[in-house]
């Protein structure tokens, strides 16, 4: 197996991606780790990690795409960017998966255009596994597509079911549609139509869920538009971080509170882990004809290692093939839901 790591992706590139790639090469000796970036820069960075693992390779790429650049324009103008070269390496069959903590829009666009979409899939979706305090929840989509149609949400439910079942090992995962109420006719026309489609789909659909249901075990998968999903994810992550910071600040003012905090330290560690994006490593882009793991922009070496681990799991469990099979099974419902992919404007991506 071979996994490409974008050495120029993320706020701490190239130091952290390179360190993570070295750690991943040591941890997974049966996997070739391919670093993509300027060759001399990477060779210089690897001097800090001697001896270099035998299963680590370099593929040159002279350009990087910044976090604030327009994704499509940057891909068009920077043909030798680490994201373009990395996805092309997978598309050409030279590697099995691509891991990047770089510009999310550029990674989504490159993966969709270079690797292509699975047959029948109309929009890819970013599926983020998140710990809702005491249980995992998958949120899809969190930013790949903010202009959804009902059949896009249907496919998100199908694809996330495969991911939750075969990678996270959740038996018969429950799918919920994020809405402003539990009643079937609540919400916008988009949500009402998506509700009807999901009700007929071969998934364990439990109906509409509100945001609070997510943390109280109402579902295992949350289906939503990319805009709502991104807001939900970042609000949840930041709330946990802020809560712990506030507790530490308040307990430092009183000896009795400090003692109590120390006695409950293990319990607070469990909560702290819920906001730790590094434990999963990254979010898979579901629906593409290949494997792409999108890591957090602040990813450290541990996050990169875990992203490589997740990529390996995707490849070995043939998740993309199973997603394509799931979409084909539900094809009649999709055909009755709207226009074929060729009739949908590209600007919606």
Structural account:
With 349 residues, this protein is α/β, with parallel strands linked by helices. It folds into two domains: 145 residues, Isopropylmalate Dehydrogenase, CATH 3.40.718.10; 179 residues, Isopropylmalate Dehydrogenase, CATH 3.40.718. 46% of the residues lie in helices and 15% in strands. It contains 14 helices and eleven strands. Helix 3 crosses helix 5. The longest helix has 26 residues. The protein starts with a strand and ends in a 14-residue tail after the last helix. The C terminus is likely disordered.
Bin the strand percentage: 15-25%
Poorly predicted segments: 339-349
The helix content, as a percent range, equals 40-55%
Q: How do the strands line up in the largest sheet?
A: 3-2-1-4-11-10-5-6-9-7-8
Shape: globular
Largest sheet: 11 strands, mixed
Class of the largest domain, according to the CATH hierarchy? Alpha Beta
How many helices does DSSP assign?
Answer: 14
Structure class: alpha/beta
| CATH architectural label of the largest domain | 3-Layer(aba) Sandwich
- Going by CATH, the homologous superfamily of the largest domain would be Isopropylmalate Dehydrogenase
The overall pLDDT average reads 89
- Topology as a string of helices (H) and strands (E): EHEHEHHEHEEHEHEHEHHHEEHHH
User: First CA to last CA: what distance?
Assistant: 31 Å
Radius of gyration over C-alpha positions, nearest whole angstrom: 21 Å
Q: How many domains in all?
A: 2
- Enter the CATH topology name of the largest domain: Isopropylmalate Dehydrogenase
Count of individual beta strands: 11
